[in-house]
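Budget justification aside, the reviewers requested a transparent look at the raw inputs and outputs of the sequence design task funded under Objective 1. We therefore reproduce one unedited record. The lines immediately below are the structure tokens for a 446-residue chain.
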């Protein structure tokens, strides 16, 4: 049986579904498996023939054990990994794994859909009739969670976002859905939104609503991300990439979920030369590891990396220690990549190869080229479609970024939302009114 414990406290170990339900351990910290299972060597001998879903099934089964029947694990994997993640050659020995072909065009689609099915399984087993999933967002997490849980019986999804901080495109991806999705504009900052989510989960008065979160804090979001690097290795092997077993994995590192998940994959048996933790000039990981928590992030062209304190830092240090000396493979932490270098990387790749990469993938590519051994294959996590940061990409390239159909269908629909002050009392009241006429009557439409 796989058990999960807190990264920072002596909380009693729990099974996977309970860790997913709770999201945050009672004593603080984040959930991590007590042991990381090894993948049989035989799988790596045949991994080039395995599909994304095949690999995902092996990973999910390893972490869920017998908590869910094998057939249900397969259904969960098929739902979560409905979108493929193709490998693209960027020229030379650089490659990108495109993780943005899901309904909201970011890697978070996989994790959100996986969590949705795990929560549904937990609720069925417990006979729970109501579940409230809260997510604080500056765009991507809220959209992925809302779309992943749209129409799920007995589940209400509350997307909390700071007033005036999101573009029309970002808001449209969750405010046009209706049904069981409730957009909540908070008259405050993203930190207020995060605080409200944490307070609601811990609030005794909201126990009846089954409050939990689907942010990257949830271990259920982490498990499917382990699949990414294993799938990338499989696709490199299938393509005959020389020295694929010595690849360097370059990862945009904001809240660190993909970085930790890749290190977990290495611990499970993935062969890798090194992992590059790519940041922008906010240099969040390097600052955090040295104890500098006073830095206030400044806006850059890679906004998902505009982080002060990475939410997943405790998972990283739990695995590796603060000097990263215990990491399963070398972790390279280069100085943050500046906006000019990010932009030039986007433009050079477009000019040389006709490929448009988003600014977060460009950050990872620039970091890999500057840090990794020249002869090593470089695998970049392309975590979002270029259209997700449309204004920034248009400004850099000077040309129009074509909107995928996933975005255009959102833009054509009517948006609805409610506004609340940044207080737990206001959030409690809204949750209590879900399903009553007052919640719908007060909804603003535009």
């Amino acid at each position: 049986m796989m058990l999960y414990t807190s990264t920072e406290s002596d909380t009693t170990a729990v099974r996977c579904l309970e860790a997913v339900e709770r999201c945050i351990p009672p004593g603080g910290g984040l959930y991590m498996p007590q042991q990381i299972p090894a993948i049989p060597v035989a799988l790596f001998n045949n991994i080039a023939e395995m599909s994304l879903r095949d690999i995902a099934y092996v990973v999910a089964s390893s972490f869920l054990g017998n908590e869910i029947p094998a057939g249900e694990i397969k259904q969960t994997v098929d739902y979560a990994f409905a979108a493929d993640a193709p490998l693209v050659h960027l020229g030379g020995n650089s490659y990108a794994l495109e993780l943005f072909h899901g309904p909201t065009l970011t890697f978070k689609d996989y994790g959100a859909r996986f969590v949705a099915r795990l929560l549904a399984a937990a609720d069925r087993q417990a006979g729970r009739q109501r579940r409230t999933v809260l997510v604080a967002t500056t765009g991507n997490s809220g959209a992925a969670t809302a779309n992943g849980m749209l129409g799920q019986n007995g589940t209400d999804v509350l997307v909390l976002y700071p007033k005036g901080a999101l573009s029309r495109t970002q808001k449209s991806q969750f405010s046009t859905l209706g049904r069981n999705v409730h957009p909540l504009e908070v008259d405050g900052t993203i930190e207020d939104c995060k605080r409200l989510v944490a307070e609601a989960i811990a609030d005794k008065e909201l126990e009846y609503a089954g409050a939990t979160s689907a942010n990257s804090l949830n271990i259920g979001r982490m498990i499917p991300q382990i699949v990414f690097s294993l799938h990338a290795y499989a696709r490199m092997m299938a393509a005959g990439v020389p020295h694929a077993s010595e690849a360097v994995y370059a990862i945009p590192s904001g809240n660190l979920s993909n970085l930790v998940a890749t290190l977990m994959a290495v611990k499970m048996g993935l062969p890798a030369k090194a992992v590059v933790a790519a940041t922008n000039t906010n240099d969040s990981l390097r600052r955090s590891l040295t104890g500098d928590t006073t830095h206030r992030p400044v806006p850059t062209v890679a906004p998902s990396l505009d982080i002060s304190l990475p939410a997943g830092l405790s998972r990283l240090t739990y695995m590796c220690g603060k000097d990263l000396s215990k990491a399963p493979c070398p972790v390279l932490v280069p100085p943050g990549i500046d906006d000019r270098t990010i932009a030039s990387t986007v433009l050079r790749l477009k000019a040389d190869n006709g490929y448009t990469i988003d600014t977060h993938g460009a950050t990872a590519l620039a970091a890999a080229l500057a840090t990794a051994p020249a002869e090593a294959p470089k695998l970049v996590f392309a975590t979002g479609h270029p259209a997700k940061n449309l204004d920034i990409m248009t400004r850099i390239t000077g040309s129009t970024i074509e909107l995928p159909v996933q975005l255009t269908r959102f833009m054509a629909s009517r948006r609805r939302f409610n506004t609340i002050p940044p207080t737990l009392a206001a959030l409690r009241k809204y949750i209590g009114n879900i399903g009553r006429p007052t919640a719908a009557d007060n909804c603003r439409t535009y």
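The chain is about 40% helix and 15% strand. The mean pLDDT is 93. Computational costs for records of this kind are itemized in the attached budget.
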